[in-house]
Amino acid sequence: MIEVKFFASIREQLGCAQLCLSLPRDGACVADVLQAVEAQTGVHLGGQHLLAAVNMAHVAMTAPVSDGDEVAFFPPVTGG
Amino acid sequence: MIEVKFFASIREQLGCAQLCLSLPRDGACVADVLQAVEAQTGVHLGGQHLLAAVNMAHVAMTAPVSDGDEVAFFPPVTGG
Amino acid sequence: MLVKVQAADFDSQAEINAFPQEGIRGAGGLVSFVGTVRDYSDAADILAMEIEHYPGMTERELERISAEARAHYDILDSLIIHRFGRLGPNERIVQVTVWARHRAAAFDACRFLIDVLKTSAPFWKREITPTGMRWVTDCPGCRAGTREGHSHGVAPAVGHQHSSMHK
Amino acid sequence: MLVKVQAADFDSQAEINAFPQEGIRGAGGLVSFVGTVRDYSDAADILAMEIEHYPGMTERELERISAEARAHYDILDSLIIHRFGRLGPNERIVQVTVWARHRAAAFDACRFLIDVLKTSAPFWKREITPTGMRWVTDCPGCRAGTREGHSHGVAPAVGHQHSSMHK
């Protein structure tokens, strides 16, 4: 299983802060996880700025995801 | 008369913080005042870094001095 | 390096006084940036600001950029404090303080830290108005060019929505 | 703009809190530089620092450079505090704080102010040792190139004496 977290406007769009998913496939990448999230929630997140993290580090959408990872999706940050 | 003030190492070299001088000549400049100070005190200040101010504003050695002005000589500043 | 992510307000001077002295011996000075919630005199409908964050990743990112600053600039140490939760006008949001032997490095590193914090630390602001909340959008990715982790989603981008609240 | 030249120590945060709020409405933040007396672990003979100044001209110069910063940078206001008299290791000497709508201008103006202060405000430091005092020499004129008011005296320069204490 992988734990997927959502923050800020993405969390609001999905109406959910966290999901557990099984790894979509061997050798899955972050984009695959996002597609699985969209399939499960029925919410389309494409077409907007979206950042991703794996195990609390920023990654590209093409980054690999392994079983047990924590994946997060969120909009561009606005701290500071 | 003009009032001449000295600060920091210049004050120490002269052994004096303040002098009153008559304007060396009509159309005198800061360098003329410095020469008058050297003549009066017998201390040679040439050959070292020296800044000057007239009426509390930084000026060049060629700046004019008028009767009633406050002239000051001091080493490069080291504040901050 | 010291990183604090907290809801509570802080006193800049007290934080500086309490900073471990061992690492900053020999400092000629410090440079601090303190970011505050703007006073919305011109947008009277904004009652407050609320800051959400990603607990765990936030601290990790702030520690990562602190280490990066130390690797790239001749500094002695740094402190980052960032608040979350609800903040009123003029309240402090963030403080970045850098100690260095020479001030040029302190200025450079402090500026680096706040710039990078704003594009990498997982904080999100929203404005609280009488009729609800709206997310502040800033899009540092668009502003700064492509950055790892920045994407317009897996589907083709169909345009960005930007609110009027840019910092 | 506010300029304070004083013997007493100051609390950075208290000074910032007490700053007139009218002029800094709309500030997104502030940048501060605080300069301190170094800890002379490697020069154990230095007991303290003493700062002499030119009363009247000091305030005038600090006000002049504050006005210059405001003319050249998009800032809201600034505060300069500089102490004189005897200061021990790690004591605060100077604080420069700049408020601005956007942080880039605050960083630029704060740096400008401390750089210019160090070459134009009439303060002189000397180190107090068990056997006497020695003036700190820094020669910003030599470092920064020719500047109005900088001269090697009316006689030809015969060389500069520089102490080992450079900041």
UniProtKB/TrEMBL annotation, chains A, B:
One GO MF term: nucleotide binding
GO-annotated biological processes: Mo-molybdopterin cofactor biosynthetic process
This protein's UniProt keywords: Nucleotide-binding
Gene Ontology terms: cellular component: molybdopterin adenylyltransferase complex
Stated name of the protein: Molybdopterin synthase sulfur carrier subunit
InterPro entries according to UniProt: Beta-grasp_dom_sf, MOCS2A, Mopterin_synth/thiamin_S_b, ThiS/MoaD-like
A Pfam family reported for this protein in Swiss-Prot or TrEMBL: ThiS
Protein source organism: Acidithiobacillus sulfuriphilus
Family note: Belongs to the MoaD family.
Automatic annotation (TrEMBL), chains C, D:
Signal peptide start and end residues: none
CDD domains noted in UniProt: MoaE
UniProt keyword annotations, A-Z: Molybdenum cofactor biosynthesis
Keyword Thylakoid: no
Biological process (GO), any one: Mo-molybdopterin cofactor biosynthetic process
GO molecular function: molybdopterin synthase activity
Pathway this chain belongs to: Cofactor biosynthesis; molybdopterin biosynthesis
Annotated region described as Disordered, given as residue ranges: 146-167
Keyword Phosphoprotein: no
Catalytic activity: 2 [molybdopterin-synthase sulfur-carrier protein]-C-terminal-Gly-aminoethanethioate + cyclic pyranopterin phosphate + H2O = molybdopterin + 2 [molybdopterin-synthase sulfur-carrier protein]-C-terminal Gly-Gly + 2 H(+)
EC number: 2.8.1.12
Quaternary assembly: Heterotetramer of 2 MoaD subunits and 2 MoaE subunits. Also stable as homodimer. The enzyme changes between these two forms during catalysis.
Family, as annotated: Belongs to the MoaE family.
Protein name: Molybdopterin synthase catalytic subunit
